[in-house]
Amino acid sequence: MNASPHNLRCTECGACIAPEAVNSNFRCPACNGLYEVVYPWSSVVRSSVTAGHPAGSDSNLPNPSALRWLWQERRTSTLAIDQSGVWRFRDLFPILKNAENAVTLREGNTPLYELPRCAEIAGIDWLLAKHQGMNPTGSFKDTGMTAALSVAAERGFQWVACASTGNTSAAMAAYAARAGLRSIVFIPEGKIAWGKLSQSMDYGALTIQLKTDFDGCMNILGELVKRFPIYLLNSVNPYRLEGQKTPAFEIVEQLDWQVPEHIIVPGGNLANSAALGKGFTELHQLGLISHTPKISVIQAEGANPLYRWFIDSNRVMRPVTADTRATAIRIGNPASWRKAASIIDELGGWCEQVSEQEIALAKAQIGAEGVGCEPASAVTLAGLKKLVALGKVTREERAVLILTGHTLKDSQYTIDYHRNELLTAAEAAQATPLQQTQHAALRKPPVVLDADPDVVLRTLEEHMNVSKSVQPA
Ligand code: F0G
């Protein structure tokens, strides 16, 4: 194998640099663009695909059948890197000099659940959820963090840092602790869920709550990395995306190499949609799948810069001041918006926005299937309903929701919803009559009773009568 098996390519101006030459803020010095990781086979694939030759005919390319076999074989291995659902696919992201330097918590290997009731609600026949909340720290960030933090450790950094709405910081703190590195997180004060804040403390990070929003935290960190030898682990770091592309591999592997028609992703800083798009595109270019799925991005109405860009005939990106209870995606100036925008355009997806009331309803509907997720993840189901109504997803097409975070990340949101204390009167009033009925049937506030069997029985009977009256006809 090549001594330097990968390079970094600016996604704006196309300039290619050696990995060691990258700036501490991971921005191209010529145009301020973000980088992507490219491999010797990337250029071979590109030229052979454009020239109309089938990918796989060049000896530099990984062989599709051999890869499928190898990835399957590793499932039975006792090696940590083989047990990781990210590093199991390391052949398609050779970013380390020595794969044994990988810092892993056995991330990935997340379930693909069927959601038949949510499918019916959305008006399609077949709906799946890739539950990335089932990762070690409870979010999809682990898949990217294992990759980028391993690079930091291999290069000998002592300190790593990120700005975060909570999940990146939880993941970074955990992986840094595993590697024995020091970590510093910047989070917007009072604007992240407690579960996430508690994680970064538990894993020993220096946790700094800044009196600003996520976008303000990013600005401060951008300055810090220029002045202090600290490795930046936000998703502008292109190695994060190399790990975050692997759920695309898992999805098709879990579907016996069938490709679903649609992947629906929540959009915040907009790296995850880009990472999944890169994953599917590479699988296609290497001949592992016959075509790519569409990737659609859903944003909260109060944090919707990509949606505004998407519906703007001039296609101008204007940052917004973000506000949503889905705090994970409370981001007004997304760093990776160009990457996400290209993936939507290249793969033929769509962008939608959803209201606070729609997010709350979708989260309760996913929870009622016994799956559960955090509010930001629920925008996917809320958005799917809109995509179906618009005819962008048809009944017989197969859709996969990317559930990005675990329900326990933000239990306060769930409790407030079921106690009917979440939405303002104005937000609740936006619900259609059907949505109001759905909310009423889903809300399950806790009931406080005397410890008396007769009282409990009476309550149970009342509850059974109420349940009958809200059953759909
Ligand atoms: N869902 C969850 C649960 C998230 O934590 C995030 C991002 C997203 C979706 C959006 O992904 O930014 O790649 O578009 N959370 C980041 C953080 C920003 O700091 O944890 P994206």
Widest sheet, order of strands: 4-5-13-10-11-12
Count of DSSP E strands? 13
Classify the beta-strand content into a percent band. Answer: 5-15%
Helix content: 40-55%
Shape: globular
Bound molecules: ligand F0G
Mean model confidence by pLDDT: 94
| Distance between the ends | 64 Å
What profile does the largest beta sheet have? Answer: 6 strands, mixed
Structural class: alpha/beta
Work out the helix count: 19
The whole-angstrom Rg is: 22 Å
What ranges have pLDDT less than 50 throughout 5 or more consecutive residues? 46-57
Q: Features of this protein?
A:
473 residues, alpha/beta, four-stranded parallel beta sheet, 42% helix, globular, binds ligand F0G
Give your account of this protein's structure.
The protein is of the alpha/beta class. Helix content is 42%, strand content 12%. The chain has 19 helices and 13 strands. The protein has helices at residues 40-50, 64-73, 80-83, 116-122, 141-154, 167-179, 194-202, 214-227, 238-244, 246-254, 271-285, 305-311, 337-347, 356-367, 375-389, 411-418, 425-429, 433-442, 453-470, and strands spanning 7-10, 16-17, 35-38, 112-114, 127-131, 159-163, 182-188, 206-210, 231-232, 262-266, 294-300, 351-354, 399-403. The strands form three sheets. Strands 4-5-13-10-11-12 form a six-stranded mixed beta sheet, with helices on both faces. A four-stranded parallel beta sheet has the order 8-7-6-9. Helix 5 (141-154) runs parallel beside helix 6, helix 6 (167-179) runs parallel beside helix 7 (194-202) and helix 10 crosses helix 11. It is globular, with a radius of gyration of 22 Å. The model is unreliable at 46-57 (pLDDT under 50). It binds ligand F0G.
